[in-house]
Amino acid sequence: MTDSRYLKRTILKEEIQSRHLGESRTLRIYLPPGYNELLSYPVIYCQDGEEFFNFGRIATYANQLILDDNIEPFIVVGVEVNTKIRTQEYAPFGSRFDAYTACFAEEIIPYIEGKYPVRTSADERILAGDSLGGSVSMHLALLYPQLFQRIISLSGAYYEQSQKLIAAENNLSALDVYMIVGLQETDFESDTGVYDFVQLNRDTRDLLLERGATVRYAEKDGKHLWGFWQKELPDALKYFLKEV
Q: Which residues contact 152 (CB under 8 A, 6 or more apart)?
């Protein structure tokens, strides 16, 4: 990852005023090498946008995949979050969950699609998130199935209420989910309690499969940390993105 070609990245910052949230929200946008406004690009939308760029190194990995692995160029949009109220926005029992999901689907998506040449079909609009970011990505796909069908879930925090909402669905055959969880995540302490993330992800995988979803699932040695998720990002991206 020391090759200078990977480090020459184009990353822009945008700020969108959200009517639903009643505040502004910062977006980070990665543009691929050779970016051309006359072309169109698949797009990855990341929860915890700042962390995906800083700790996940998603822009550096994107350059590597495009330059060395012949992956079709793509755009990344990172949606930043205030960590102090993250659970309130990302968890379905959170006080800001409805406002955040509405902002994401009804304000952020149209803003990006109006300004950048991203593709607008649900199979080329990919959601990515870690922990609660993975579960809120799932809920966005349940709430807006016409917009979202592809999810990268890194140790998703599928608490009881999330599982109940998935269980209430009858047909998730359009959904395609890449799920990874670390085997050392059996007693992770979050701000709402101590959870066995391995079991939560196994149960959620089964709920999804029972409802017809496509699931690529893996358990590997790893903790509930970016040190684990960062290494898994390239394979997760390659799962959904095409070679050229």
A: 44, 126, 127, 128, 129, 134, 137, 178, 236, 237, 239, 240
Q: What are the pLDDT digits (tens) for 58-117? A: 999 999 999 999 999 999 999 999 999 999 999 999 999 999 999 999 999 999 999 999
Give every CB contact of residue 102 below 8 A, 6+ residues apart in sequence: 20
Q: Torsion over CA of 120, 144, 114 and 119, rounded to 10 degrees?
A: -10
Could you count the other beta carbons within 10 Å of the beta carbon of residue 243?
9
Which amino acid is present at 123? D
Residues contacting residue 84 through CB under 8 Å, at least 6 positions apart? none
